[in-house]
Design brief:
Order of helices and strands: EEHHHEEHHEEEEEEHHEE
Strand content: 25-35%
Strand order of the largest sheet: 1-2-5-6-9-10-11-12
Helix content: 25-40%
Radius of gyration: 18 Å
Oligomer: single chain
Number of strands: 12
Shape: globular
Number of helices: 7
Length: about 250
């Protein structure tokens, strides 16, 4: 049966302070298998929130930031996330950092990493296309080679009612970093300043962990965003503060 034979089913839940949305097409859209995989994905995200939330004083990361515990005292995922953050710090020349002003905040690593992990039980659904999104960053998978790709709209940071591009995705991830919805939450860790030359950065990659990390790091680099992404041979789109757009890669 073609993965497009049935109408897509959509699910939405609030987890990690974000709207988590799922679209399914194909064999398993609204049956026990689909609902079970969705429940498993949500459980994985809730587990991440319990460990990594910077808003929960009892979370392991909050306790780690206060010096009450050591990295080795926690689950191995904590060391994994911090190691990813250190790689991103080195690769971005310090513009991206999970520690700023003595405060530990691995949020810039956690979202993409967590959603990539949460998508595993959904991708395992036979003959089913999956698009799992968290606050606009997403993982997409098309099971049927003859089915059309997911079409992902990239929001205009200057006018959220419009899209500036549409990206077809069959297997991979799309992440966007910008100020349109959350204000100045991304800063250049070297200066503490919010970059003012760039409005948004979108990266398309095989893995949402690195799509999200690279989009955030590129945004933090400000005027160097496009040059840095090109040096990494990334595919994506930079929308500059003046409204001009720069396409990278394919």
């Amino acid at each position: 049966m073609s993965a497009t034979a049935t109408r897509p089913a959509r699910y939405v839940e609030q987890v990690m302070g974000l709207p988590i949305s799922l679209a399914l097409r194909g064999r398993h859209t609204d049956d026990a298998a689909a609902r079970g995989a969705w429940a498993e994905a949500l459980a994985a995200l809730r587990d991440v929130d319990r460990v990594f939330s910077t808003y929960r004083p009892e979370s392991f990361v909050s306790r780690l930031g206060r010096g009450e515990v050591a990295v080795d005292d926690g689950p191995p995922e904590v060391a994994e996330v911090l190691a990813l953050g250190e790689v991103a710090r080195l690769q971005s020349y310090g513009a991206f950092d999970v520690r700023r002003g003595g405060v530990l905040d691995p949020t810039g690593v956690v979202k993409g990493w967590a959603v990539e992990r949460a998508a595993r039980p959904l991708r395992a659904l036979p003959d089913t296309d999956v698009c799992l999104s968290a606050g606009g960053d997403l993982v997409a998978h098309v099971a049927d080679p003859d089915a059309p790709p997911w079409r992902i709209g990239i929001e205009d940071p200057h006018d959220p009612t419009r899209v500036v591009a549409v990206v077809p995705v069959r297997a991979g991830a799309v992440a966007t970093s910008g100020l349109a919805h959350r204000g100045g939450h991304v800063v250049d860790a070297r200066t503490g300043a919010v970059p003012d030359a760039v409005a948004s950065v979108t990266v398309v990659h095989d893995d949402l962990t690195w799509a999200d990390l690279d989009a955030t790091a590129a945004f933090a680099l400000g005027r160097d965003a496009a040059r840095w992404l090109r040096s990494r041979r990334r595919t994506g789109l930079v929308v500059w503060a003046d409204g001009t757009r720069e396409v990278l890669g394919g």
